[in-house]
């Protein structure tokens, strides 16, 4: 089992999650984060910290695509453990449907 970052993180990236993870397993893309599934110890601490409710346990159904994306991107994006400011328009994008098709970017983020 692991926790998975899902679609609503895209363009929200509040980063509250990175500061609470005891094993520093968040990785940063240009406009979202992912969790490395092999590093996550399933503690669940990050899930309630996400203002966008974008972290889910992979025991929920229908998350296969997101689990694969978390695995793939965590191997290409830099590790991040320090919270920075959220995008200024994060609130406007919270809950917007179709963010993956419209805005997903494979470009790596800044990292620590
Ligand atoms: S707190 Fe939620 S929305 Fe913010 S970066 Fe973490 S997973 Fe993404
Ligand atoms: S469940 Fe725990 S170990 Fe996994 S990403 Fe969240 S805080 Fe880190």
From TrEMBL:
One of the record's GO molecular function terms: 4 iron, 4 sulfur cluster binding
The keyword Lyase appears for this protein: no
SUPFAM superfamilies linked: 4Fe-4S ferredoxins (SSF54862)
Cofactor(s) listed: [4Fe-4S] cluster; [3Fe-4S] cluster
InterPro entries the UniProt entry points to: 4Fe4S_Fe-S-bd, 4Fe4S_Fe_S_CS, 7Fe_ferredoxin, Fd_C, FdxA, RnfB_subfamily
Keywords carried by this UniProt record: 3Fe-4S, 4Fe-4S, Electron transport, Iron, Iron-sulfur, Metal-binding, Repeat, Transport
Residue ranges of domain 4Fe-4S ferredoxin-type in the record: 1-30, 31-60
PANTHER family assigned: FERREDOXIN, OXIDOREDUCTASE
Stated role: Ferredoxins are iron-sulfur proteins that transfer electrons in a wide variety of metabolic reactions.
Protein name: Ferredoxin
